[in-house]
Design a protein that fits this description.
The protein is of the alpha+beta class. The chain is built from nine helices and 19 strands. A hairpin with a 4-residue loop joins β15 and β16.
């Protein structure tokens, strides 16, 4: 935990403090931002308050009085619920506006870790509860140079495996044989393991109408054969299998043959155009030093697709934050599923992945964009045309 940096951020945000709360380890963000792991099961509520100035303060149960021992600050212990409320009131004394892992109307569900009752309790003690979403982005979503290096290396390995997977499909279908979605997904998972990569789930290998389901994933119960004349979508994500690594996450599409339909070519061109327009907007803002919010990037991609007549077929956000989890806690490129007003800040990364999903096929094109103080760049290979396998 960087106490000085947190207090500087609280001052910039005009917050009196940041109140962390947990019970049964429901808030992983708290542990990551504070930089500690509980040495035992968390069976009682704890509170940790970082004021804008001065020493942090702790409130812990007497049964687990050492729960926050790794963190700086003074400690008050409670046992009864009355003592807990009184202790929390002392913790917040003099504070009018405090941040918590709370999101108004649950607009940013990645940050909404604190239950409504605890928010009500804090408000009853006279404090206004503000969302910590902006703070979380600063202390959770920003990468270090080492994290960026891990992402770039993961990207090189994932891009190679992606090429090999499509080559495998093409060799099989050109010979008149068939591959299966499940077989190719297994090939990718095995290749990840051999390359020192890991992923919690996935990948998505989807043919024809299965590609029209953005979160389709083949299994033993559902797996289609891939043959000549089929469209194939592969969405794959992985990170280096070592602590502190961050994900690389891409989606490419290909056609098994040399004569895709005009509709497929049209849809790919529109998706590519929406992707490139969104990338350009981020790059322009970064180079000019202008603030840009996640919803604005979504507006660019969604507007492009809408102008080409496919608005109702783009059914998810344009992109998500990327970190040690494939869906990170930073700003999402979203004005559909949520209205994400968070600024895109330096040293964060996110996907840009517009898609169009029809009854018989779907096409998505996903890249990762990393932003630093004065520029933005796509961190891996970019698909320019529908692959002919």
């Amino acid at each position: 935990m960087d106490l000085a940096a947190i207090q500087q951020a609280l001052s910039r945000e005009e917050l009196d403090g940041w109140l962390f709360f947990d019970h049964h380890q429901r808030d992983p963000l708290a542990y990551r931002v504070l930089g500690f792991a509980p040495g035992r099961q968390v069976t009682r509520r704890w509170y940790y308050f970082i004021p804008r100035q001065g020493e942090p303060r702790k409130l812990v149960h007497r049964i687990e009085s050492d729960m926050l021992a790794q963190l700086p600050g003074s400690t008050v212990a409670y046992a009864s619920w009355k003592e807990q409320i009184a202790g929390l009131e002392r913790l917040l004394e003099g504070s009018r506006r405090v941040a918590m892992q709370y999101s108004p109307n649950c607009a940013i569900p990645y940050v909404a870790m604190v239950d409504a009752g605890t928010v009500e309790l804090v408000r009853s003690l006279g404090a206004e509860v503000a969302s910590s979403a902006g703070l979380i982005q600063i202390f959770e979503a920003r990468w270090t140079p080492a994290a960026l290096d891990s992402h770039l290396e993961a990207g090189r390995r994932v891009d190679r495996i992606r090429r090999e997977a499509f080559e495998r499909i093409g060799a099989r279908t050109r010979s008149g044989a068939a591959a299966s979605e499940l077989e190719i997904a297994g090939f990718i998972r095995d290749a990840f393991a051999s390359a020192g990569l890991r992923a919690e789930d996935g990948p998505i290998v989807a043919v024809n109408e299965n590609a029209a389901n953005p979160h389709y994933e083949p299994s033993r119960e559902q797996s289609r054969e891939i043959r000549g004349g089929d469209l194939v979508l592969i969405d794959m994500w992985a990170k280096l299998d070592r602590p502190g690594s961050v994900y690389y996450d891409i989606t490419w599409t290909g056609f098994c043959g040399d004569r895709p339909s005009e509709r497929m070519l049209e849809v790919f061109a529109i998706v590519r155009g929406a992707r490139d327009a969104a990338i350009a907007r981020v790059q322009q803002a970064a180079s000019a030093g202008r603030n840009l919010a996640g919803f604005e990037v979504d507006d660019v991609a969604r507007g492009y697709i809408a102008r080409h007549g496919y608005a109702e077929h783009f059914i998810h956000r344009t992109g998500h934050s990327i970190g040690e989890q494939v869906h990170g806690a930073g700003a999402n490129m979203d004005n559909l599923e949520t209205y994400d007003e968070r600024r895109i800040i330096p040293w964060t990364c996110f996907s840009i992945e517009p898609g169009i999903y029809l009854d018989s096929f779907g096409i998505r094109s996903e890249v990762n964009v990393f932003v630093d103080e004065r520029s933005a760049r796509v961190t891996g290979e970019i698909q320019k045309a529908l692959l002919l396998l």
